[in-house]
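Consider the following assembly input.
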Amino acid sequence: MSFFVALRKEILEQWRSYRLLIVVAVFVAFGLMSPLIAKFTPELLKLIPEGEQLADLIPPPTAADAVAQYIKNISQFGVILALLMAMGAVAQEKDKGTAALVLVKPMSRSAFLVAKFVALALTFAAGVAIAAAAAYYYTLLLFEPLDVPGWLALNGLMLLFVLVYVALTLFASTMSKSQAVASGLAFAMLIVFASIGALPGVGEYLPAQLLAWGARLLAGSDTASWPALWLSVGIIAAALVGAGVIFKRQEI
Amino acid sequence: MAAIRIQGLKKTFGQVRALDGLDLVVEPGMVFGFLGPNGAGKTTTIRILTGLAWPTDGRAWVTGIEIPARSREVAWRIGYLPEEPAFYPWMTPREFLDHVGRIFGLVASERTARTQELLDLAGLVQVSERRIGGFSHGMRQRLGIAQALVNRPAVLFLDEPVSALDPAGRREVLELIHRLRGECTVFMSTHVLADVERVCDDVGIIAKGRMVATAQQDELIARYAVPAFEVESDPGSVERLAEWARGLQKVRWVTSVAVDGPTARVVVSEVEMAKRELLPAAVQAGVILTRYEMVRPSLEDVFLRLVGEGRQVQ
């Protein structure tokens, strides 16, 4: 019961504080730009002095280039937005005092926390969905139609990848009372994942592998990366459960 | 059944003892003034009673329900206004009260009616569609009280409800608290004595994490107040007044003498003796008097005496 009350407030906040708009705008911008950049990079190179020779070295752009550009942009900016959107979610409410005002009432701390994650997940899902539609349309116009089930799977996996960082940042935000500390902690976790991913044999289990799997699915390959998927889901669950346990023990 | 019962409550933050064996009973239906200097442990006590913090030791019950073990049950029966209430700035007061109504599981028709009722009570009807982000301190404080009343609480905790307000805002909020008398038990912490004198029935004085006195306001004054006399001289005889005051310090039944310009405040240990001796002594010393009166002891006198900041004034 209190979960839906908290979720209603969170969704309303995503809308009123323009967070939903920002996420959708950034994702759509990159959804539209990615096929354009892929298509016109050789043309742009020709405009710079002696760029024509350089442009000749680049093979003619294809839909695969547009997809690669899209994956790179959405995943990078997705992680940045995850940090920015989630870092203050709990820390700011504790710091300003709104958490105390609400949690002294019959609102469970776990409902308060999970509602924040679900609202952020819905915001990012909306952003990825609209970006996917935009990118699909521009790729269709500039190159060729993409395989729809593969495209949907790629975007689903990208969303899961971003949600890993949403959950980790939310965990950091719960641990800390300051937004700055929360973002620092989340950024440190990001660095740790990147460092571990560079180790031989480890990268295939990490969330970043979801992006490669999505690209393979779109290309028609059936080489799956289930360990990365289960680990990502596990990280999200562990981050939320951990945040819940810490939050319940915290004095507000 | 007591509205609030506290037994030997302790709370430590590292080496700091915020509460040091606090004992207190608050009967239902009264406006209780929880008085103490800054850092005495008032906010810590309220945070424990509302389930936002846990005690290091000791026990406490709110409406007969023990906390912190059953804080979730207590949450349905209490209202809480923190010292500086914070709201979601993008909400309107109507939306915030509706949100609180939803938390308490009120159905739509109940929420609408209760929200309107509380907006009326808090004097916020005119601004009910404005965003809270632009509200003044006083408006936030009144909204804070309104949100604490949504569930018709049995016990209302108010942490320094008027300390940060200007005189007009202070009066508005105190009138609001006054109107709650009889509707619920109000537990109001403050370090402002005048506010307690205006609205509270019973008073508890806390210092260094312990209760030093609890009683009805008048009883407390009668029990602890220091008798004092004020003597005011003609501006032309201020020097004689000062000289007379210096001499009084050697008198056995005089506790202390404070001189402020043409006024001397004499605190005495034997009232009857002072009644007989003080005025003739002033006249004999050649002080031309414009005023002489026995001062009604104030809660401030009691408070200062009990919290150990006694008036050993010069």
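The longest helix of chain A spans residues 109-142. Ask yourself how this observation constrains the way the partners meet.
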